[in-house]
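[step 3/7] inverse_fold.run input=structure_tokens len=508
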């Protein structure tokens, strides 16, 4: 390549660079002018917006200022009106005060005049009294005494007759009211109560079961009677076995155990012991349920669960042939009726009546009267003191400390004395059987004792480690002599002392 060509190319390149530079400068200047124009427009628009905002704010401020001025004027007018009213009221009060002052002055004047007249009247009366005493030669006290004495002599008989009539009329009204209340309570609660009997019948599916119950040589029936303390009567009556015992709890346990044994089919001494233990647990459940049903029925709440459980044991207790729990429920209803009529505490009266015989549930286990035992039970488990006062006086052992205690005693009399409620012969019979067992159980070495066959036999189980065979014979004689000396009974009573020992080992 020659020199001219090279120079030409260099010049062309230089010219290109110079033209590009100027072109870029022109483009940059045009873009800068466009940006400045846009900024000027935005500034102009911002000024316009600011002016518009300032104008709007000034208008709004003028409006608010005018509104505030108007509110201030209205408040000022209201204050002026209130001030005018207060001024008028003050003027009115001033006028009334002036009137009151004037009236007070007039009253003071009249009181002074009245005092003067009263003094004049007193002086006149004193003068007349002195004149009368001078004429009658009697003082005022002597004249008054003579006047009263004369009136008493003249109207003494009339006063006595009138007082007698008033007293008689009041007594008649009170008696009629009391009779109405008691009659209402009896009519509303005079439910028929069936007395518990001494036997329970258990149905059996076939006569073959009787043979299983009796067992080989009577082994099963003897074991059952020994464990439960009842008498099983297996006779020719088809389809039934009779359980006889004066203790309803024993009868219930025996019935449940016998029914379970019949269903199970395996009747043997070991199985009998298991079934009797299970039956006792079931009876305890029944006792708890009966207690809860009783408190729910009469509406007595907030009692300790242990009190309710002890109360349920009365379901299996009788008094003169009357079920004690039903008697207590009936008493609670009657006490509630009487308390409501007399305006007493219904809740306390109901609770006191329901728990009045709770001591009978454990009186064969704890010494003391059933009232004293019941008081200790309620105190131990935190019963209300008013309830204890209401229940403790129903037999007169404690004084009547509240109206509710009198109501509980009246309810007890109503429930127990109404026709058909109780049978004395049943209670005497049960008492004799209980005394039989008590005499035998009091002898040292006796494990337990049961009265059977309507009291014609007493079975005494002794501890073999403490009593040998010779001592068992002597014990039977001593118990028989003690029964002869302490009890009255028809016929004869068989004393059967049983000494039984067992030896148990386990093969492992």
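[step 3/7] decode complete -> sequence:
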């Amino acid at each position: 390549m020659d020199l001219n060509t090279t120079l030409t190319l260099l010049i062309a390149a230089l010219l290109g660079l110079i033209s590009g530079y100027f072109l870029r400068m022109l483009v940059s200047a045009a873009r800068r002018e466009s940006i400045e124009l846009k900024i000027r427009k935005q500034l102009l628009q911002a000024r316009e917006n600011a002016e518009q905002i300032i104008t709007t704010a000034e208008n709004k401020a003028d409006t608010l200022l005018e509104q505030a001025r108007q509110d201030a004027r209205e408040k000022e007018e209201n204050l002026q009106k209130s001030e005018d009213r207060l001024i008028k009221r003050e003027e009115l009060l001033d006028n009334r005060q002036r009137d009151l002052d004037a009236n007070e002055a007039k009253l003071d004047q009249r009181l002074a005049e009245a005092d003067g007249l009263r003094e004049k009247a007193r002086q006149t009366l004193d003068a007349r009294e002195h004149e009368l005493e001078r004429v009658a030669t009697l003082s005022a006290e002597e004249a008054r005494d003579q006047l009263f004495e004369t009136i008493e002599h003249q109207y003494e008989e009339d006063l006595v007759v009138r007082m007698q009539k008033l007293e008689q009329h009041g007594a008649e009204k009170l008696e009629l009211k009391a009779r109405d209340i008691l009659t209402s309570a009896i009519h509303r609660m005079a439910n028929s109560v069936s007395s518990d009997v001494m036997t329970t019948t258990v149905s059996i599916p076939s006569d073959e079961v009787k043979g299983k119950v009796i067992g080989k040589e009577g082994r099963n029936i003897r074991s059952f009677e020994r464990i439960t303390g009842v008498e099983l009567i297996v006779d020719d009556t088809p389809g039934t076995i009779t359980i006889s015992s004066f203790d309803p709890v024993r009868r219930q346990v025996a019935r449940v155990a016998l029914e379970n044994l019949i269903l199970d089919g395996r009747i043997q001494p070991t199985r009998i012991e298991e079934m009797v233990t299970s039956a006792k647990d079931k009876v305890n459940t029944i006792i708890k349920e009966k207690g809860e049903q009783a408190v729910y029925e009469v509406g007595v709440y907030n009692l300790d669960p242990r009190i309710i459980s002890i109360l349920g044991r009365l379901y299996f207790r009788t008094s003169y042939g009357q079920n004690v729990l039903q008697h207590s429920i009936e008493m609670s209803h009657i006490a509630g009726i009487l308390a409501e009529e007399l305006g007493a505490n219904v809740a306390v009266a109901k609770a006191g009546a329901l728990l009045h015989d709770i001591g009978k549930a454990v009186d064969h286990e704890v010494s003391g009267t059933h009232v004293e035992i019941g008081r200790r039970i309620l105190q131990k488990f935190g019963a209300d003191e008013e309830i204890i006062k209401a229940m403790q006086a129903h037999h007169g052992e404690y004084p009547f400390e509240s109206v509710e205690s009198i109501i509980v005693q009246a309810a007890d009399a109503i429930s127990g004395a109404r026709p058909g409620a109780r049978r004395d012969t049943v209670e005497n019979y049960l008492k004799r059987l209980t005394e039989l067992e008590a005499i035998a159980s009091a002898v040292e070495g006796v494990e337990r004792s049961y009265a059977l066959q309507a009291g014609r036999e007493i079975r005494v189980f002794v501890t073999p480690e403490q009593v040998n065979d010779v001592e068992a014979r002597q014990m039977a004689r001593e118990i028989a002599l003690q029964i002869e000396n302490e009890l009255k009974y028809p016929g004869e009573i068989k004393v059967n002392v049983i000494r039984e020992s067992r030896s148990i080992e386990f093969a492992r």
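[step 4/7] annotate
The first strand starts at residue 199 and ends at 203.
Confidence is low (pLDDT under 50) at residues 187-196.
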